[in-house]
Amino acid sequence: MFLFRTFVTKVYAFKIAMSELTPRPIVLSGPSGTGKSTLIKKLMNEFKEYFGFTISHTTRKARPGEKHGQDYYFTNREAMEEAVSRNEFIETAEYSGNLYGTSKKAVEDVLSKQKICILDIDMQGVKNVKQTNLKPRYIFIKPPSMEALEERLRGRETETDESIQKRLCSAKAELEYALTGAYDVMIINDDLEIAYEELKGFLSQDISNLQKQKFKKH
Ligand SMILES: Nc1ncnc2c1ncn2[C@@H]1O[C@H](COP(=O)(O)OP(=O)(O)OP(=O)(O)O)[C@@H](O)[C@H]1O
């Protein structure tokens, strides 16, 4: 039996001065295990001077290999709730008993460097960001099938059976939401290299604009 994921989400007023030169942020969303982090890592490796990743806060425990300040800001509930009450977050979501959120500072840090800000957020986060003035471009990363998604989640060896079932259940809702036209583009991550080329193709204009700007400065 599928367990339904219960969310308690909040969105906060977010206004940031975005000049014409500030590149539009991008949102990468899609079911857990679909390959968002893998694609972002490839993008950052190839174009690290043009992209900046917003590092989310979470109260969940770090998985082996994850680094504080690199994969997430690992924190505890009390500290995070205090920061939220100081209005320091754009959005927060509660999932499986843990809080997740994107701080304003994480976004501002990237925008202030005139880099394309990447937000890796779930459907609820997407709905929340749509209520801010960030005006990102929305990219949905779709798994080739539910079977492949399950295989990837199992292969990652980070999930229990219960959490895999929850993630697969959430994946269905995410796919349904994507079909409502909430995203500017949908990329199927079957063959990783093909998916990556599609992602780069979608971002090629933004990348070349930044390349021109940097060239002018030198
Ligand atoms: N095209 C692909 N083919 C096969 N395996 C892939 C592909 N893309 C990613 N993977 C693998 O699938 C697993 C899940 O990928 P990843 O952690 O990037 O997903 P995610 O969408 O970022 O998940 P989460 O939202 O839970 O952080 C990883 O083990 C990754 O190596």
UniProtKB/TrEMBL annotation:
InterPro entries: GK/Ca_channel_bsu, Guanylate_kin-like_dom, Guanylate_kinase, Guanylate_kinase_CS, P-loop_NTPase. Residues 23-204 form the Guanylate kinase-like domain. Gene3D superfamilies: P-loop containing nucleotide triphosphate hydrolases. Keywords: ATP-binding, Kinase, Nucleotide-binding, Transferase. CDD domains: GMPK. It holds the Pfam family Guanylate_kin. It is an enzyme of class 2 (transferase). PROSITE patterns: GUANYLATE_KINASE_1, GUANYLATE_KINASE_2. It comes from the Eukaryota. Its EC number is 2.7.4.8. Belongs to the guanylate kinase family. This is guanylate kinase. It comes from Saccoglossus kowalevskii (Acorn worm). The lineage of its organism: Eukaryota, Metazoa, Hemichordata, Enteropneusta, Harrimaniidae. The gene is LOC100373228.
